[in-house]
Each structure stands twice: as C-alpha cells, then as structure tokens.
Amino acid sequence: MSGNNEPVDPAGGRRGFLGVAAAALAGVLLAPGVRLIEIAQAAPGAASATAGARRGVRWGMLIDSGKCASGCTDCVTACNTENGLSGGTLPTDSQWIRKIEIKEVRTGKTQSLPMMCQHCAEPPCVDVCPTGASFKRADGIVLVDRHSCIGCRYCVMACPYQARSFVHEPLAGQKPDVPRGKGTVEGCTLCVHKVDRGEQPACVTACSDAGHGAIVFGDLNDPQSEISRRVAQYPSRQVREDLNLDTGVRYLGI
Amino acid sequence: MPMRSPSRFALAVGTLVAGLLVAGSLLAADAPTRVAARAAQPVIEPARGGQCVQDPAFMRRNHMELLRHDRDATVRAGVRDTRYSLKACIGCHASKTNDSVNSASTNFCQSCHAYAAVKIDCFECHASKPAPGAAHVVVKP
C-alpha cells in the first residue's frame, strides 16, 4: 500500500458529506470569528493544558483531621466515582484513598482522617521501580506510567503508606480520563487529569460539598496560596516524618 | 486463396486477441474476489468529525508513532494537547451503532487490526468509548 497507490475509499463521498455536515454543525458562527469549539478550547485551564506540568509548582494537600467527620466517606466515594474504581474493600480491590480512625491510647480520643498517596518529594516507590514506570512529575505529583509498569509490585512494598494497589483482574468500562488495566500498579493520581485542567481533585471538591472543608488543595511553593498560608500559620504534620520523605500531603491536628 | 488468407488470418488473430482480452479482464476481476475470500477486508466506518489531524495515508502508516509520542508527553509531562491524543481519536472514530472503536469486528480500530493481524493492547486499559455526552473534538487542519 504505497503512497501513490492508495485504495480508493468507497465511502469517500459519504464521509466527505458527513465531514461537511459535522463541520457545519461544529463550526456554526456564534459571533463573527467565534465558534463553539473555540470557546470550549479557551475554557479555564486550557492554557496550562498545553503547557503541561510546571516545574516551579508543588501540588499538595492540607488535611484538617479536626474537621474530618468520623464515618463520613464522601472523599472515598468521590474518588471511586471519578476514577472508575469498584469501591470494593477486598485485599485484591484497588483503593486509592481510605478513611482511617486513629486513637490516643491513654485518653481514648479518636480522630478520623483520609489516607492516600502522600506524593513525597523523595518517593521510595520511585527509588525501587526497576523500569522507571513509577515517577514524579515536575509539579510533584507521583504517578505510575502503566505503559512501562511490569507489575512487579516493588513500589507496593516500598510505600510506607500502603497507598498503592495492584490490578488483579481484567477491567472493562474504564473512564476515558483514567486508563487502568490488569497487571499494573496504581494509586492516587491527585486527579492529575483534573489538575491539568485547572480543577481540584475529586476528594477535595466532595469534602467541601459535604460542608466539612477538611482538605485544602494547592501549590505549596506559592507563598500566596491558601495552603501555603495555612501551613505557615498552623502546625502541620507529615505522617512518618522520621522517614524524611517530605510529603506533599500534610495533616493538621494529629 | 491469396486474397482470402490474410482476412482469415486477421480474423484468427482478432479472435485470439479478443479472447485474451476477455480472459485478462476476467482474471483481473477475479483477483480481488479471491483475496476478499481469503481474508475479510477491513470495514472503515465513517468518522463523526470533519477532517482527520493528518492525511489518511499518513495516518495508516504512522498513527502508532503519533500515539506513542503523545502518550509519553501526556503521562510524563502532563501535556494534554488533543491533536494526536487517543481520546480525540476515539471521540471521532467511535461507531455510530455501538459507540466504540474496538468492541465489534466492524469498529474502526478493530476491523483494520484484525485484517493486519496486529493485536491492539490500548483498550485493555484505555476506554474504547468516548465519555458519555462528550462532544467530539473537531480538529482544524
């Protein structure tokens, strides 16, 4: 099938007509020189969508466990819905975020908080990955490139937060924005597809929709951002600070 | 006799040439039929969008390179330019009958890949259908 001997497409005429019809629909002029598609492409975040992950940014979360309601699982549900997870809690089910209860042994005081990938600045999962599939983006989000993941699960073992899951079964009906597949490791992506559009992760939105507002998402490197001001103002903690991983997810009140 | 033989000769030659032509045209017409009988020709379903991001002949040879290039840019660097994105391909090429590029043997990706005997791994992880309610992207040439 060389370039100058292409088979003639028998549906060429029809396709041509459809193309013209579709172009006519999508290209309806709303105002001189403005079309629907151009408005869609000029949506907020579209500029950063082409720019990609910016180097100076460090995305992070500040979770106030004082505001996190015991028994509320809205963040978990939102994560499952957004990313197409089953929501099952078997050892073989993927779990990107989970609610945990911690208890002060002496006083019996309990606290609730969500636990997920902490998006470390020095991620152990990246250190141990033999293929380079586990990696940290320029803006600090730690991800798995499933194209090169071989499913060895070293990262699952290395993660101190048990934040990574392995997909054991063939999957169907994945979300177009969140490809997932058997034989690869996965974990919280900080809803990278939404962040790249200039939106907030699903759990953050769900928490504020539920009226708790326990999670603040933002750029830890920007001193003017809400999260940076709070981190500067209140004493926040990292889980397993002793490991010196410099986590992107910080907690208040633990 | 000398007057008639050339005309007979001409007649014979004419018949032979005509016979060869007919046989040739029959053979020529027969060839694609035999190929078609051996392997099902790919069914190319009409796309939904206007114009493809590249010339169809170029896409037939190079779509995998474009996808591989953009997948690394998207996953690693977060560049979500839709020009060569798999999502944009699916948005345009999803079948109008089952809304997929890979579910039925007549679907856009599947029919050609079955013909070429190349297994597609993309859709073990990636959705083969556009997002519900998502308007497909019309790419400007």
Which helices and strands appear, and what pairs or packs with what?
The complex is a heterodimer of chains A (254) and B (141).
Chain A: H1 12-26, E1 29-31, E2 34-35, H2 36-41, H3 46-51, E3 59-64, H4 74-83, E4 97-103, E5 110-116, H5 124-128, E6 134-136, E7 142-144, H6 154-158, E8 165-166, E9 185-186, H7 192-195, H8 202-209, E10 215-219, H9 226-233, E11 236-237, E12 249-252
Parallel strand pairs in A: 3-12
Antiparallel strand pairs in A: 1-2, 3-10, 4-5, 6-7, 8-9, 11-12
Helix pairs in contact in A: 4-8
Chain B: H1 4-38, H2 56-77, H3 86-93, H4 108-116, H5 122-125
List keywords for this structure.
heterodimer; A: 254 residues; alpha+beta; Alpha-Beta Plaits; 2 domains; four-stranded mixed β-sheet; two-stranded antiparallel sheet; disordered N terminus; B: mainly alpha; 5 helices
Overall structural class of chain B, as computed from helix and strand content, comes to: mainly alpha
The strands making up the biggest β-sheet of chain A line up spatially as 10-3-12-11
Label the CATH architecture of the largest domain in chain A.
Answer: 2-Layer Sandwich
How many individual domains of chain B? Answer: 2
Largest interface: A-B, 45 and 33 residues
Task: Kindly provide the name of the CATH class of the largest domain in chain A.
Answer: Alpha Beta
Gross geometry of chain A:
globular
The portion of residues forming beta strands of chain A comes to: 15-25%
List how many beta strands of chain A DSSP finds.
12
Radius of gyration of chain A: 22 Å
Total count of helical runs of at least 4 residues of chain A? 9
Q: At the third CATH level, what is the topology name of the largest domain in chain A?
A: Alpha-Beta Plaits
Summed over residues and divided by their number, the pLDDT of chain B gives a mean of: 77
- Largest sheet composition of chain B: none
Class of secondary structure makeup of chain A = alpha+beta
Oligomeric organization of the protein chains = heterodimer
Percentage of residues assigned to helices of chain A: 25-40%
Question: What characterizes the major β-sheet of chain A?
Answer: 4 strands, mixed
Q: What is the strand tally of chain B?
A: 0
**What is the count of helical runs of chain B?**
5
